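Sample entry copied in:
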Amino acid sequence: MHPSTPKKALSRWIPAAALGSLILTTHAGAAAASDFTVFETGQVRPLALSPDGKTLFAVNTPDNRLEIFRVKAAGLKHLGSVPVGLEPVAVAARNNGEVWVVNHLSDSVSIVDITSDGAGHVVRTLLVGDEPRDIVFAGPGASRAFITAAHRGQNSPIDPQLTTPGVGRADVWVFDADDLGTSLGGSPLSILTLFSDTPRALAVTPDGSHVYAAAFHSGNRTTTIAAGLVPMPPPTTDFLGVPQPARSLIVKFDGAHWVDELDRTWDHLVRFSLPDKDVFVIDATANPPAQLVGPAGSFSGVGTILFNMIVNPANGNVYVTNTEAINERRFEGPGDFAGQSVRGHLHESRITVLGSGGVAPRHLNKHIDYSTCCAPIPNDENERSLAFPQGMAITPDGSTLYVAALGSSKIGVFSTAEIEQDTFVPDTARQIAVSGGGPTGVILNPAKRHLYALTRFDNSISVIDTVQQAEVAHVPMWSPEPPSVVAGRRFLYDASLSSSHGDSACASCHVFGDFDSLAWDLGAPDSTTLNNPGPFVTDPVNDPSFIALKGPMTTQSLRGMANHGPMHWRGDRTGGNDAPSAQPDSGTFDEEAAFMKFLVAFPSLLGRSEPIPPADMQAFTDFVLQIVYPPNPIRALDNSLTPDQQAGRDFYFNEISFPSDPLTCNDCHVLDPSGNPGSDAPGFFGTDGRSGIAGNGDMLKNPHLRNQYQKVGAFGGTDMSAFFPDVAFPFLGDQVRGYGFLHDGTIDTLFRFVSLGFVFPPGQAGITAKRQVEDFMLAFDTNLAPIVGQQVTLTATNAAVAGPRVDLLISRADAGECDLVAKSSLLQAQIGFLYTGGGTFMGDRQSLPPIPDAALRQLPALYGRALTYTCMPVGSGFRTGVDRDRDGILDGDDDTHG
């Protein structure tokens, strides 16, 4: 608040009497596709029911809102819509009048007050760690809020210790809901750090005494040993007999030893251990809450990717939806020459039972015969499958479990006794199809005999009669997503379409459009060498052709592929080979042509009888190329660099670190956020599409560097002393990840990466320079400035602490890094503002004059309603701030209309 501005001054700009007559005079205009940013965030707990069962709350992830519905006998009636943060993914009702919403991209939690008529407004915003995902209430009187977040982020007071071995990467923030403190983002009771990678799901016991927290990319105790250190298992040629070079090798810890597919032991080459702690048990009543000590404090071997959890109220057992990766098996394709392949059997969709009997995984698709492949669709096996199990709901007596199958567009119905005893038989009679597709969350309303499911493909809610076991209504929520996103999304997840078995899709490995933190050896011995059209930063030392056996490669993200050239680590998904021989690389920078090359993956990897139709692949391509990277959570919110990060950047751009050519870091890993002048394409963030020499002499496409902070946690890695006798490779003990950096994940840290094969000054100066380059790479630019998504809520009493944060948001908007919007509610209506520069906002009522910043800040004190500021991606401010034409979508009085 600016104390120099008297309260009465605001009435000149926002007269209360005028607001009532201006409700329908919002700014008109349809949102264009360019004003929507696709993040493809995975929903975790998208639905919540008020304790009295009268109100349903749903996160509207694409529209950054909480939707409020009255529960009716025949369906749902929409009551209101509350702007929250960017990418809301979870909601929990603390009581009938208060709802908390977790905003994944905003690193925040919106606390929403629900009025007696069902309307709502944000009263406070808590600031938490990076990418929060889930929330539950537990502890004494269910008064404590538990929130999962990554062990990093600009709002966290904890040093992320990105370069320290043996540090957990998963945080659980705990707040006293009755005493949030007076600090800007709230004062947590505790921030628990768990020994796993980024966390996701939470579950609470019926008595509220214990909370379970699960890792997301939990891993499966596999890692990669660098090429040249172990003799390769056969085959060592392609099917034509062409010799293939030595490759790295995936090994798995079997509980006693690191072994390969031939059961050979390689313990001496793996310089760390993976305890594989997956689910953690927290005493919610302790002061402060804490993880249980000893073996009772965690469960291992639960799964590779953990999606969600629920507790059986009758016996206390925990059910965890997950997938288990089969990445220790090699090769794609039919497997005729090698005798093995992962085709059609990449992951298994499971529910793992945790209880007094330990950890008991249950394969949901045990009817599948993986020894056969690629029957035409439809087929009986496909129709009985459930892929990518997500949220769950359970009956009060604990006897029946409902499971949302994202990749099958069904709700699975299970007897919990049969799940626990593993006696269930997959059967379409116990599956409920939902229209719209892609269910992510379900919640049960026993009084109405209804189950509600949020369908992500079309951003709607299905109402299911649990007696008839059939959908009885489908309620759409308003969405700003362009048609190309809606049309293309299903091809990422739809396993019933993508695979003959009905359990595999691109999202098996590219989880929610990102990666799975694993390496896969997807060489194709049944194929032949393919020409590599380049272009190259330097002339290739060896033949740059794409040979059949490429060895293990870590899964790359589907984010941010636009303007970044060919795809795959080698760049072997390229349009360069489509051009005439006179211009062999002219198609290299056509990302659309490159992604279309993945059409062959449907039969060769996912196990479909044939590729999907070209029109479907085009829709998939149009969708995927719109997904972008989130802001970097390590970089300061004002986009400044620390002295060490700046020194690292200076070295990166200016010092020759590859003297044989000679090249700077930037000569290969081009950083140019400005992109192509005159083009709408994003900039270059570590690659401009060219290839360079890898450590083993191969030519790899120079990869982007936007996600290095996501790969922290594999300290130890492979012992490479055979190659670098002067470098120490000590055993570093328990770590949280099995894969680090480089194409195969064999290098544990960025410091070691720049230490092997690059030239730095000798002695301590070189060590310092390496650390500084590492610091810069961890804070590397992404498509969006760090401020995007960040929020603050200004109230009548917190101007002293919120004011500087508002100043920060305005300064970054002035710098062109975001569009700043502000939201409040007055006279039972939502009201929005867009910052237009020069210290001025425009309102969403056409008759309102420009509003000075100082006057707008008086709104909470004058009208008693909080005002929440949010930095939106550039280009989306007008749509989200002042252009909100939702008429005809969320109006109506009938019971089944949205």
Summary: The chain has 16 helices and 46 strands.
